[in-house]
Amino acid sequence: MDARRAVPRAQAPWKEMSAEELEKQYSPSRWVVRMEPEEALRTFREKGTEATKNAQATRRCQLYVPYGDGKGDRMDIYFPDTESEALPFFLFFHGGYWQSGSKDQSAFMVNPLTTRGVAVAVVDYDVAPKGTLDHMVDQVTRSIVFIQQQYPRNEGIYLCGHSAGAHLASMMFLANWTKHGGVPNLRGFFLVSGLYDLEPIVSTSNNALLLMTLEDAWRNSPQWHLDTAPAWPADLACPILVMVGEHESPEFHRQSWEFCQPSSLPPRPCAEQDGKPHLKNCLIWITLVSLRI
Ligand SMILES: N[C@@H](CC(=O)c1ccccc1NC=O)C(=O)O
After folding, report:
1. Which residues have any ligand 1 atom within 6 Å of their CB?
2. Distance from residue 230's CA to the centre of ligand 1 (Å)
3. Fold type of domain 31-74+85-109+126-156+164-184+197-239+246-263+280-292
4. Which of 163, 191, 210 to mutate to test the pocket of ligand 1 (most atoms within 8 A of CB)?
5. What is the pLDDT of residues 189-225, one digit of tens each?
6. Which residues are in the BD-FAE-like domain (predicted)?
7. DSSP letter, residue 156
């Protein structure tokens, strides 16, 4: 807790906000410029569901693959046309503030990636109120270990998450892989519009179903734990792309920006090799055009 107290107030502008302003900052749909919030959320769901149906109708796939014993431990895996186990794997973790969304509306990246020779796994996890944050983090960890064990000859595992899913993916920097049965061949992170410090969310309506305490938020905020994260194998070259939408709220921009600062990101994969940093961090500002699906 000391580290959190040591954060200068200037770096935590949300602490000065009214409850109403904080609510707005953490309501992404209210920042969409092309449509009203309700229409934006509906469009997001409809496009995702349509793209998932299309992917399942057109791609070689295995659906509802169990990655554990829990009822919610399921993923859909989509394959390129080429039959091979030596494929790169792209794992996607959906958003929805840890309380909505599912794999069934999240396979929108499948066709562009599988046509380029990448296998895609769209992972389900138990959203609140069934699942707690700790349980979801555990599920995500196990889903990655499952892919590594099923496809030991993979050409890299790339994690991508959106919003709450980007948070879950970023928690993997803190994972104790040896405890989970082996180090996955992680080769890249794509973190889209993520949340890395959960404390501001505790007092918003997004916490009504999740019921996270300040303690839960602290434990599950990668922003505050990267300096003590377990060591990574030095040979894992692992670029991390942190992305945030151009029109998203100042708080969403701040979360991504602060997570990108060298003092926040895991020091170990940064170890220099051949005089070059292992880890390339960059903040990409997505334009509205590139967000179109
Ligand atoms: N109630 C939220 C919904 C939301 O944040 C959201 C919706 C779909 C996918 C991701 C989302 N945000 C973070 O996980 C909003 O008003 O935007």
Report:
1. 27-29, 37, 41, 44, 95-97, 101, 163-164
2. 30
3. Rossmann fold (3.40.50)
4. 163
5. 999 999 999 999 999 999 999 999 999 999 999 999 8
6. 75-176
7. -
Centre of ligand 1 from the C-alpha of residue 23, in Å: 12
Q: Which residues contact 19 (CB under 8 A, 6 or more apart)?
A: 203
CA-nearest of 246, 198, 213 to 26 is 198
CA-CA distance, 2 to 178, in Å (whole number)? 28
Q: What are the b/e assignments for 221-243, b being 16+ CB within 10 Å? A: bbbbbbeebeebeeebbbebbbb
89-93 and 281-286 beta bridge pairing:
unpaired
What is the complex's ipTM, to 2 decimals?
A: 0.95
Residue-wise pLDDT tens digits, 73-94: 999 999 999 888 899 999 999 9
